[in-house]
């Protein structure tokens, strides 16, 4: 009997209770600003609302894109002469750009839009995406532009043989396939294809002297891109404006 009582007392000791009691619920980790924004403003519509409200005068070109477009504006502001608006947001996928396309492109009434997107789709920044989903989003943006009388430049995805923030992904073949599709789609729809890939590549990779990390251009890289952009803009402006839909 004494032995049984001892066993019961040991089983009820604080140490034993601590082992059998369910663990205390941990406080949720604090979300980063980027994570909070994905929940509260998925497309980051707030990023350019103030800048859009300040746009006056005619807009010739809007550059819609991700970090490569944002970096162009940040690092080479002299390229963005009056009438050129940069609307790049780092890390964005085509689905996010499609959501903000009306606000950041259509409502500015540009003559031309350049759409540079796809890098972050391949990286899966907002979750896994198929090439078909990326193509659908690109087509939707191009169709929206044409429906509002805006000429379209489809920019090739720049070269990359790795993504520093997504180890293990081999993007080169996927980039090449999407670029081939964009070139063909541009030819079929009267858009202009801006071939940055051919200007920047070294094999399947981004030429090292023109990039800081194998994905994003440095100032030398943007200097190489500028003539490609200028030629694409001239070519787009030489085309008749698409017939806008009746509103």
From TrEMBL:
SUPFAM superfamilies: SGNH hydrolase
Keyword hit for Transmembrane helix: no
Pfam family, one: Lipase_GDSL_2
Lineage: superkingdom: Bacteria
Domain SGNH hydrolase-type esterase, first and last residues per copy: 63-224
Signal peptide: 1-18
Statement: the UniProt record of this protein carries the keyword tRNA processing: no
Record keywords, A-Z: Signal
Gene Ontology molecular functions: phosphatidylcholine lysophospholipase activity
Name listed for the protein in its UniProt record: Lysophospholipase L1-like esterase
Organism of this sequence: Sphingomonas endophytica
């Amino acid at each position: 009997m004494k032995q049984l009582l001892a066993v019961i007392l040991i089983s009820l000791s604080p140490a034993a209770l601590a082992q059998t009691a369910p663990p205390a619920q941990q406080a949720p980790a604090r979300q980063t600003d980027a994570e909070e924004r994905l929940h509260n403003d998925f497309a980051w519509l707030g990023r350019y609302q103030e800048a859009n409200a300040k746009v006056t005068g005619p807009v010739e070109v809007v550059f819609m894109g991700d970090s490569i477009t944002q970096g162009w504006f940040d690092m080479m502001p002299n390229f963005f002469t009056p009438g050129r608006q940069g609307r790049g947001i780092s890390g964005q996928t085509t689905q996010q750009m499609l959501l903000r396309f009306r606000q950041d492109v259509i409502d500015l009434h540009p003559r031309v839009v350049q759409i540079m997107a796809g890098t972050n789709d391949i990286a899966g920044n907002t979750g896994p995406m198929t090439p078909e989903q990326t193509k659908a989003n690109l087509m939707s943006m191009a169709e929206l532009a044409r429906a509002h009388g805006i000429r379209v430049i489809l920019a090739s995805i720049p070269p990359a043989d790795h993504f520093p923030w997504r180890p293990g992904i081999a993007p080169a073949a996927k980039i090449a396939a999407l670029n081939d599709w964009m070139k063909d789609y541009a030819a079929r729809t009267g858009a202009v294809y801006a071939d940055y890939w051919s200007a920047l590549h070294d094999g399947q990779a981004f030429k090292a002297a023109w990039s800081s990390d194998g994905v994003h251009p440095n100032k030398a890289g943007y200097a190489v891109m500028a003539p490609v952009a200028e030629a694409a803009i001239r070519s787009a402006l030489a085309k008749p404006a698409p017939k806008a839909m009746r509103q």
